[in-house]
Records
---
Amino acid sequence: MSATPADPSTEPAPQLPRLGPVGTVRFVWRQLTSMRTALFLLMLLAVAAVPGSVLPQRGVNPGQVTAYFQTHPGTAPWIDRLGGFDVYASVWFSAIYLLLFVSLVGCVLPRTRQHLRAMRSQPPAAPRRFERMPAHREVEVDASPDEVLRAARAVLGSRRYRVRADGSELSAERGYLRETGNLVFHLALLGLLLAVAAGHLLGWRGDVVVAVGDQFSNTSVAYNSLNAGPWVDVSALPPFQLDLDRLDVAFEQRGPQQGQPRDFRATVTSRAAPGAASQRSVVEVNHPLQVDGASVFLLGNGYAPVITVRDAKGTELYSAATPFLNQDGNYTSVGVVKVVGAARQIGLQGLFLPTVAFSDGRLPVSVFPDLKNPALALTPFVGDLGLSSGQPQSVFVLDTAKMQRLQGRDGKPVRLLMAPGDTAQLPDGLGSVTFDRVERYAGFSVRHDPGRVWALASAIAAMVGLGLSLFVPRRRVFVRARPVESRDGSPRTVVETAALARGEDTGLDDELDRLIAALRPQRHTTLEEAPA
Amino acid sequence: MSVNENLATTANYLLYGSMASYTVAFLGFTLDLAGGAARAERVALASAPQRELAAVGAQGPLRDDAPTAPPVVPPARRKAAGIGVSLTLLAVLLHVAAVAVRGVATQRPPWGNMYEFATAGSAVVALVFVATLRWRDLRYLGTFVIGPVLLMLGLAVTVLYTRAGQLVPSLKSVWLAIHVSVAFISSALFTIAFSLTVLYLVQERRERSGAAKRSFMDALPRARELDLASYRLHAVAFPLWTFTLVAGAIWAENAWGRYWGWDPKEVWTFVIWVVYAGYLHARATRGWQGRKAATLALAGYGCILFNFLVVNIFFVGFHSYAGVS
């Protein structure tokens, strides 16, 4: 920052004071904690949050992100590099809100200190010139200055002002709760951030599909998917168990909203640990079950056709209620069966339709979500299921890379279309497939979030603080009484009052009018009434 | 539990009736406003001598024999405004009845889809206006309040209309009554505040440029008053919006197992909250008061409209209850 001009013809640069390292830090800190910066960061936060609502997000719907990559192969990698699919975990979004919180702390802590000092100390002394205040009144009364001040003190005291007397002057202040509320609001936001962080680090969430009649044990391997915070030991999840006894569903039967879901209700038996006392309860949408520190939510449901595969001799190779994932509002569902016991591994790729309808030459479709006319369409494959490759496989996807479709005698690929109770023979003496019946399954989401209570407490504190900071008026009132001699020679008192508020306050004039009305005896002369 | 179709039809007729009534009220207010400039000028002329008198009076003690009675300004008979107020009252009655009857017909809080949200929300806008009229003469604002109400209702019955029906399971909760009602009450207040902010910006511009041109704006309050009124509405609406956000999070925790999941609707509710928080901060920041702060309020309302009309219909998420096909 040298101020020596290299060329004498140029004007000398203005002599800037040297800041030095401490000064620079202080300068940056002042800038960061200024209201202007906070405002700028707030606006930036609002703008930065928007892309996450337009682009699919990994944390919300990873499937959509994959689909986006397929439909936009050119731009998707770039968006990904910029964090566009993880906006709320991205560096830039985090930077904005963390800076905002730093700015908030830098602003709120000094204010807290000041406020604590103000609450312990007396209101500031009255200013010299009252007429410069936003509200100002002057009246002449008969009472002596002492009487006037005593009366004013009583009135202000009853209106919850803190009063300081200074000879012939009073200064009074009320509404400290406004600032208290403001500080509580901002500190509660900080509490909210910490609660969210705690939930992220210490919480976990798992999704699992359970067919009616099946049992679920809360271990990490039992989940279809499990997201755990970095500080969670997934091998030590609470050992509770759930039996899904029943699942009742209801759909709108007629009218324009036909087929819309109306009611889902799962009846479960839960135990805090294997062998512990069991308890029967109902899990519904909006009514989660609390068990062993975790909450169990009913988030989905669907159909699990019970499928049995036998070899040519009639030996059972596979028999299970197999969950099929629904794809649309009419529960057109897809699923797979993987049979490993036979000499040649068998894979069945299936489509389940709760209420089947056929149209010429097309695939059958489902026209209603409930079981009115169920049908199961299966396409059998033989070969290597790829289970020994060591790669983890989804139970809902068939890897057909090393498999062939089975062909019938006519050389066309085999396709089985079955109703409950049907049995079909597989070609080449591979055995038979039976569609025994249909069960329902429930999609449960199990969640443990130790931060949520704190998040709620912070949110409530923030709302209370916000209400106080917006609706409690913070006002200062000043009173000065000075003796004068009236025209007839009797002693009188001129009372000057003024009021000042923090923030927008339209009640100042009323406040002074009330005060003066209380000070005035019946007879008085108006010297001057100066509205604001 | 099925829908009582007769009652649902009655609710629709009540709403059409209220729209007809609002339309005539709107015309009344607009006619009144058109005559307002001339009236404002007459009042200004008539009160000019009075001001002088007052100035003289302040010099010394008042004499009893002084002609203290102000020159009589004939109170303008504002027939059109009177019609506007009466028909607004009628319209509000029909409107509230329409919302209530729809609730009875469906046996649930009548705000389960966008159509119902818009009709209930616009009812709150009109109710707040009518309630305020009881203690302050805000008839000049009628055009700018009933206008948006009519727009909202028009949009509701044409684009957003959804036949009365039952709710999907995720909406069956006591939080529907709490979260959604506070959401539309707060949106309604933001709507009126938006109207006032626009008027403030126009008025402020006229005052700054010292426009001598006569305009209906002369009949409206001064910029400072419009600004204060808009701030007060924002100051009530913002905590309500905060409550909407928190109540929504509690409900989401209950229904979906997480209190915050960056669902598009959640994102936009948050964006709106941040923008209005920015507005409140701007009013306390030197160099940002007045016009700049007002611009932020406009941006906030833009986000509300976007959240309601675009996010609900075009963004896929957990909050897809629009019912618009």
---
Amino acid sequence: MFTIIIYVLALGMLLLSFLKDKQKTKIALKKAWKSFEYILPQFLSILIIIGILLAVLNPETIFQLIGQESGWLGIVIASIIGSVTLIPGFVAFPLAAALLKSGAGLTQLAVFISTLMMVGIVTIPVEIKFFGKKAAILRNALAFVFSYVVAIVMGVVLR
Amino acid sequence: MKELIRRYKFALLLVLIDLGIIAIYPSIGQRSFEITWSSTIEMLSVLPPIFILLGLLDVWIERETMIKLMGEKSGFLGIALAFLLGSAAAGPLYAAFPLAGVLLKKGCKFSNVLIFIGAWSTTKIPMLLFEATAMGWRFMALRFIIDIPGIALIAYITERLLNEQEKQHIYDNAVALK
């Protein structure tokens, strides 16, 4: 649904741009392609790594690791899995909801969701390409620590 | 050709590893191929509009305009715009980095670019709706409320920990990307 809105927006803008200035529009499309091609090798690598990781770390395995009574160790494992993997939201949230129903701790799930979204170990090469090593590592490290804050607050408030 | 192989050698190596896994553990290997394939389809379906918008942004938005809106002295407006741009996004986080590159190139303040990345990663509107249905409104709302200051804080600390020279290097790199 939202993808459609973005498509309509992009195509509408493109049309508007074309009507205003054909030459500029051509340059814009060229730039779009060039920036895509620039990071395509990294994108392909990410896609293959995600495939291998998720084939090994299937939902059942994740469930065993952060399921009921997994305590602090479960929180740590949840944050590591969340940081390393890159699961699209429409897969991650139903998984998290299922885990919640079967009794996984809220704190574990919160840290899992938070690191999943903010920390990207697999995507860090792309991030370094644009932000440099130091900024990319800093952002991910801070996001990792922050995910614990989020999880602990949520665990306390929602209990 | 040589250049092409140099750029794609890591991806090629991963394909070889994947083939190795298929040979030794057929079921895991097959699953990994299926997951890679479906993520590729997903990626290809969301990326075209993002990159078209990136190209248009690059061509039509003047550097001066961007500096005024989101630059060093943009203040609250810049922060709000960064949050809005990131939250209105669709697509995986790694698609946000090329766009962040254009923002840097146009003179957007570094912490604002980081806020944009932070918002893209956690407060995307379609994602929030999905989260609310799966985890309940209280879970989503509480995480959202904690995340807003968190994103800003991460952005400020990251910017503060970089010195002028390092920041300049990042901006120069963004300009060199074309």
